[in-house]
Design goal:
The complex is a heterodimer of chains A (604) and B (218). Chain A is an alpha/beta fold and 604 residues long. Among the domains of chain A are: 226 residues, no CATH class; 139 residues, Transcription Regulator spoIIAA (2-Layer Sandwich), CATH 3.30.750.210. Chain A has 20 helices and 19 strands. In chain A, helix 6 packs antiparallel against helix 7, helix 13 packs parallel to helix 14 and helix 14 packs parallel to helix 15. Chain B contains five helices and ten strands. The chains are: A alpha/beta (604), B alpha+beta (218). Chains A and B meet through helix 1 and helix 9 of A and helix 1 of B.
């Protein structure tokens, strides 16, 4: 091991020992837990969920939670050559001897890395092949809400927020171990916990046309529906105050202060907007206190506020003002991501000096008001143009605009809308007297490809085929001609695979295994993604990828994720789908409760 | 006022690169209550200046860093050493500190360095290896391929940068080559080139070498 570190890139990805790392004597704990992030260190260490659960597990005396990341390809090669099994960062012990192995599922394109990590660890890929004495492999995170494409690889899944249920699982594990019961009996025990899904207790039955007929329940302990877990009062939670400080520059290299969970907006394409409901805020006092401890414990020069939509925190301006006051004397910056741009927030940005006066970002997502109404993106052209005008007048000269193409009901008019909006922003800039604006206007129009996601009103929608997406991209390339406007886009192939996995069913487990065997890994990294291999993987299993990506599903069809309940009702999602087709806007949760089905919602 | 400190970078932290080491020091200093001076401007920073960067994987017992203190700071160097050693990660240790009034940048003061290159033997005879190394370094030219900044290969003669060499047996499976060479911003010998030179001669693996910076001469 020492020797291979000498020949790999960035060896500190694998050495641990960061400031605030948890050190325990492994012989003195009852549970050894491996928290696995299926991507490289710099990405995994930027994930808040890892920080929260690492801290929570390690507050227990009976558990030692350690971190595992996907070794980069050079490291993997060395490990395979020298027969070094996947190890945990803290103790360097092989994780195949651990009790519980937990993966976090943040994005579909990390799935092949999971298989690769299990293989590197020397753990059988398939749940059914794991024997007594081997660890249980579990998963959670946003992608767990459609667990089916991964069903064969995991012993169980956890739905929703993990703070309580993961602790309950640990308690059951200790009990199970003391009672010397079988593997199956442990799965039966956890399947009785609210929020735990044991896929081997459910069997999908298919119709002749390939659609799912039903799920057969194979074990009396298994529930009909698995309801996600949430923490009602976030102020009761502890926070990872012993924040790990990586040596390497990671993607989000600053402590995160979580303000609230959930989002009041209800954009119809956004999965996070539904699965994290209801909105629950932390108190301002608690946040201020936590911020100070985080800075004291880490020595970071910046702290960021974290949520799905910064400006929607009820007492946002008071909180920001207070934090600026306490952080300034310590020479600590406040980072404010995803702010809605208006005069107040521009003043605030000025004050925290967080953005160099260059880049401001707007996410209209669609080019016309009609399509913005379809997706329920509550931002108007006037908002954007007014925001730009203010920004230009206070010194900004660079604007980034995020759009999605391939949205349901999109026409050429909507594409032209993107072009028109960019041109109007240019006009706004030149309408301002020369003395009052900064030279060098630059507008970047960035267009990603729409991916329908489970548990959104667009879950029934199909995706545009590749040719159509490419034609739409070509349209924008051709028409975005203004010198100040730059167009950036991604190849749509990766979004196609993402859609297939997002909406996949259990038959895709085989596809995933095929893809991994063909060498697919790090699929979210452009340099490794190989579309041809993925197509081959689908062909090998005799599955038509377009069945998953392009097909419009029936509203009454059994969805692959129908065993799961996110507390938002199916009726509501259907109503929102219809509202989308009717181009009808649904107000945000604070304006009016729209009856999404959440019980005891604190916003109502 | 500047506090000039000498520190060690041992095995546990040798894979932390130069930029990451700088960040680690900054964050550790911010966790103390030391009266440090911040730079002006929009992003005030702790004022640190390091001497010659140390390569990834190289250990050292002779690293230098200058820390700028507030003008009216009333604190003894020993106290600074004590406070910093409490927050620095295992493997980093400040060994001494002195106060100086003003200085040119540390980097510009570096003149020479001493490296110990340990060679792990597999089944070679240690005495024979020492003899081969002695012969190697006696050659009039020591040519080695080096990649230039614009990614071209270039042949350099490192002989002129070597001031002194000593090859000796440490134990039956380790031979040590101690190199005293030019270092700093004008002429600098990268010890990895010496390892490559030795490796070319002995035909071993890069994994069989350990580099340690024994001294830095200001």
């Amino acid at each position: 091991m020492k020797n291979i570190l000498k020949v790999v890139e960035k060896p500190i990805r694998y050495t641990g020992e960061e400031i605030n790392m948890c050190k325990k004597d492994p012989s003195k704990v009852k549970i050894r837990y491996a928290f696995c992030f299926p991507d490289v260190y710099e990405i995994g260490m930027s994930h808040l969920g890892l920080r929260i659960l690492y801290d929570l597990y390690n507050r227990r005396e009976d558990t030692y939670c350690e971190r595992v990341f996907a070794p980069w390809v050079d490291m993997e090669k060395q490990m395979r050559e020298h027969d070094i099994k996947l190890f945990a960062l803290e103790s360097k012990d092989e994780i195949r001897n651990f009790d519980l192995i937990g993966f976090t599922l943040q994005y579909e394109m990390s799935y092949t890395n999971i298989l690769n990590m299990l293989d590197l660890a020397g753990i059988p890929l398939l749940s059914k092949d794991r024997k007594d004495g081997m660890p249980f492999v579990m998963a959670g995170g946003p992608c767990a809400y459609n667990p089916e494409p991964l069903a064969d690889f995991f012993d169980f899944f956890v739905m929703g927020e993990g703070e309580e249920v993961n602790m309950e699982i640990n308690d059951l594990y200790i009990k199970w171990k003391e009672e010397n019961k079988s593997r199956k009996e442990f799965l039966e025990m956890v399947s009785e916990l609210e929020g735990v899904y044991v896929p081997s207790f459910y069997e999908p039955v298919y119709q002749d046309d390939g659609k799912i007929k039903e799920y057969k329940i194979l074990n009396i302990h298994a529930k009909n529906k698995i309801t996600k877990r949430i923490i009602k009062n976030l102020d009761t939670l502890t926070y990872p105050e012993k924040w790990l400080v990586p040596y390497l520059k990671v993607v989000h290299d600053r402590p995160m202060l979580e303000m609230f969970r959930g989002c009041i907006r209800g954009c119809r394409f956004c999965q996070a907007g539904y699965i994290y409901r209801p909105v629950r805020e932390k108190s301002k006092e608690k946040l201020e206190q936590t911020a100070n401890v985080l800075i004291q414990n880490t020595g970071y020069e910046e702290i960021s506020l974290t949520s799905l939509s910064t400006s929607d925190y009820t007492h946002f301006h008071e909180l920001a003002g207070e934090l600026i006051k306490t952080m300034k004397p310590k020479n600590v910056n406040l980072s404010l991501p995803s702010l809605r741009i208006d005069s107040v927030s521009l003043k605030l940005l000025d004050e925290v000096n967080q953005v160099r006066k260059s880049g401001l970002t707007f996410a209209p997502e669609a080019g016309t008001q009609r399509l913005r109404d379809v997706i329920n993106k509550g931002i108007t052209e006037e908002d954007i143009l007014h925001g730009c005008d203010l920004a230009f007048r206070s010194g900004w000269n660079t604007i980034k605009l995020y759009f999605m193409i391939g949205l349901p009901t999109e026409t050429e008019e909507d594409l032209q809308g993107i072009v028109d909006l960019a041109d109007k922003i240019v006009e706004v800039y030149y309408a301002i007297p020369k003395k009052e604006r900064t030279k060098g206007l630059s507008i970047t129009v960035s267009a990603s490809t729409f991916v329908p996601k489970p548990f959104t009103p667009f879950q029934w929608c199909g995706q545009n085929d590749i040719e159509t997406i490419k034609k739409k991209q070509d349209y924008l390339k051709k028409h975005l001609t203004n010198k100040a406007v730059k167009f950036s886009w991604h190849e749509p192939e990766i979004s196609v695979i993402e859609a297939a996995l997002a909406k996949g069913d259990r038959r895709q487990c085989e596809v995933l295994q095929n893809a991994w065997k063909l060498g697919c890994k790090f699929d979210s990294w452009g340099e490794f993604f190989n579309y041809e291999k993925w197509l081959q993987a689908f062909e090998k299993s005799n599955l038509d990828i377009r069945y998953y990506t392009e097909r419009k599903m029936d509203l009454d069809e059994v969805l692959p994720w129908s065993n799961i309940d996110i507390m938002v009702s199916d009726k509501f999602l259907k109503r929102e789908y219809q509202n989308a087709l009717d181009e009808k806007v649904t107000p945000n949760c604070r304006v009016k409760c729209n009856g999404c089905g959440i019980q005891d919602c604190p916003v109502r | 006022m500047i506090c000039r400190m000498r520190y060690e970078k041992r095995d546990e932290v040798k894979y932390i690169g130069h930029l990451d080491t700088m960040r680690t020091f900054t964050r550790c200093i911010k966790r103390t209550n030391l009266p440090v001076k911040y730079s002006g401007g929009f992003n005030p920073r702790v004022q640190l200046s390091f001497a010659l960067p140390l390569g990834v994987g190289v250990t050292s017992e002779c690293e230098y860093v200058d820390l700028e203190l507030q003008d009216d700071a009333d604190i003894e160097p020993v106290e600074i050493v004590k406070e910093l050693n409490e927050v620095l990660p295992e493997g980093f240790r400040i060994v001494s500190a002195t106060k100086i009034e003003e200085s040119k940048s540390l980097m510009s003061l570096v003149k020479e360095a001493i490296y110990e290159i340990s060679i792990l033997l597999t089944n070679e005879n240690a005495e024979e290896i020492v003899n081969r190394l002695n012969t190697l370094f006696e050659k009039p030219n020591l040519l080695i391929e080096k990649q230039t900044k614009n990614k071209r290969q270039e042949q350099v003669d490192i002989k002129e940068m070597i001031l002194n060499v000593k090859n000796e047996i440490v134990n039956y499976c380790t031979v040590r080559c101690t190199i005293h060479c030019l270092a700093g911003s004008e002429k600098n010998l990268n010890p990895n080139l010496v390892v490559e030179l030795i490796n070319n001669e002995l035909g071993k693996n890069m994994e069989d070498f350990e580099i340690h910076r024994k001294g830095l001469i200001l």
